[in-house]
Amino acid sequence: MNTKIQPYQFNFIRKQANILLQAHLSVNDKNTIKTLQAIVLEKINEQFGTDKDALQPLLDGFLEAATSKPRLEHYLEGLKEAVIPFDPPSKQQLTKLFKKTKKLKIPEWETMDLRDYTFYSWNDSGKQQKFIIASIDGQLVGVSGTISPTTQKGICPICHETSEVAMFLSKVKESGDGMYTKRGNYICYDSEKCNHNIERRDELEAFVQNVKFMK
């Protein structure tokens, strides 16, 4: 299969499929199901925009798969094969991204299914720090900052889902005079869950731009 999708696009299709599955399990009216199917397919087409025609081969069997949990699990296993994995940085690249950080933790990339990650992030609870790696406009960007050890229920600005969020703050140089300011927001404390929930890149890119670069 030549068509490839990003991890966040897989998340979007999975969520829409689960919406259909729940409808099949709880709704008996066929017209209601057909209407929901049309709405879901329209949302998928809107999500993929100009790439929607290339996506069609991946949607073969989509509606049928969403009629039962075993069928859907089988379909999603096949769809996962089309996901482009996160491209991990080398140790040298990672050290360069966070050159001010001593004793930087190096992720064990070989133990991960990199198809699960739109971005990669981890917490250093000992230092109360969070590290984020993302590709922005084709360039690998690293963001680090403090992460609060306390969490609360809230909507994460990266994945737009309700989760346990914590305040993340990063120092940003505002101008050439060496002055810094702190920027941040309440984001998912658990970045594994954030990656599972994220369905678009726009919010991720906006967040990284805000906490990394001078305006």
UniProtKB/TrEMBL annotation:
Residues annotated as signal peptide: none
Domain Elongation factor G-binding protein C-terminal treble-clef zinc-finger, chain residue ranges per copy: 100-205
Elongation factor G-binding protein N-terminal domain: residues covered: 5-86
Domain of life: Bacteria
CDD domains, alphabetized: FusC_FusB
Protein name per Swiss-Prot or TrEMBL: Fibronectin-binding protein
Organism from which the protein derives: Enterococcus caccae ATCC BAA-1240
Lineage of producing organism: Bacteria, Bacillati, Bacillota, Bacilli, Lactobacillales
